[in-house]
C-alpha cells in the first residue's frame, strides 16, 4: 500500500484502529454512543471491619448527568485505581471514551494521602468488583440488572501496582490492565506470580518515575497468566497515562525526560489497544482478537511482548488475514480466502462508520478460494472486509479509489 495513499502520519496501526472503530460501531454490537451518567456511592466492606470504600461511578445512561437512570442492557465493569496523590478526575479521557462504548467505570477515592496503604488499596479494588456484581443482583440498586458478568481491574502507577495485589489469587475479575504500574509494599512483582487472569501491561519507555526495567517488565515476566501482553509505548512518559495533573508532573521534575510524543498521542495508543482488549475479553467479540494481536505485533508506536497459550482464547479463531487485490481498487476487488475456508461462510463489507455496505454468503466449494466483489459503486475511502465461518474470523482492509 503506497504511503502517499494514506493521510500523513497514518501508520499500519492507525489504519487498524480505524478498522476497529468500524467494528465497534457496527449495528450488531450494543452499547455504543451512550450518554455518561454519574453516581457517588459510599460502600462499606464488612469483611474489613466495615471499611468505607467511597466510589465514583460513571456508567452508560439514558441521559447524561448525575443520578440519571442506567441505559438498557448489562455493561462490563472496570474498577480503576488512581496514582499516588492523584484524583480520579485525572483519568477523564478513559471515562469519556469507554463509557459511551458500553463500559461502567468505578473509581475509589481511598488511599489518597501521603502514606497510602497499598495492601488496603488492592483490597478495595478487589472488593469493588464483587460489590458491583452484588449491585447488579440487588433490586433496590440503581444498577439492578445492568451489571455484566465480565469485569476488569485497571490502574495507573500506584493504582497499577495495587491492581496486581487485587488480582493475586483472584479470578473474580475477568482481566487486568495496568498503566505504568509501580512496585508496591507488599510487592506487586511478587503478587504477579499468583495472578492468572489475562493481562495487558502498559509501560512507557521514557518513564523516569516507574522505569519499565524495574517495574512493569519484571511484573509482566512474573505473571502466571496463560495469556499476557506487554506494550511499551515509544517516547511516552509516566504522567502521560493520565490527563494533566500538577502533582504527577512535579514527580517527573527530578528525573530526566525525553518525551517524543504528546500526551494525546499516548492516550491514543492506550485506548487503541485497551478497547480491543476489553472488546474481546469483556464483550466477547471474537472477531477483534486477530486485529488486536496483529496490531500489537506490527505497530511502530510500541515495543511488545506477548504470550497466550490458553486454548479458550484461540479456540475457533484464526489470525490469518484475507488477501485483497488490487489494493487500492477501483472496480473489482478480488479476495483470496484462507485455505482452511472449505465451507459456506458469510462475508461483510463495512464502512468506517460501521454501516454494512455489502453482505452475503460464500461457498468456497462452488466459487473457489478467490472471490470477486464489485465495489465500483462505493465512495472513495477505507473499508473493512470480514469473512466468517464455523466461528472463525478472517479480516482485511482495502482502499477504494
Description:
This protein has helices at 12-24, 92-98, 118-137, 158-167, 188-192, 216-222, 246-253, 263-281, 289-298, 311-314, 364-367; strands at 36-45, 51-60, 65-66, 75-81, 104-108, 147-156, 175-179, 199-204, 227-233, 302-308, 323-325, 332-336, 345-351, 356-362, 370-374, 381-389, 392-400. With 401 residues, the chain is an alpha/beta fold. Strands 3-1-2-5-4-6-7-8-9-10 form a 10-stranded mixed β-sheet, with helices on both faces. Mean pLDDT is 85; it is low at 1-31 and 310-320.
What are its keywords?
single chain; 401 residues; alpha/beta; ten-stranded mixed sheet; 17 strands; disordered N terminus
**How would you write the strand order of the largest sheet?**
3-1-2-5-4-6-7-8-9-10
| Beta-strand residue percentage | 25-35%
Please work out how many helical segments DSSP would assign.
Answer: 11
- State the end-to-end distance: 12 Å
Largest sheet: 10 strands, mixed
Helical residue percent? 25-40%
Low-confidence stretches: 1-31, 310-320
Shape: globular
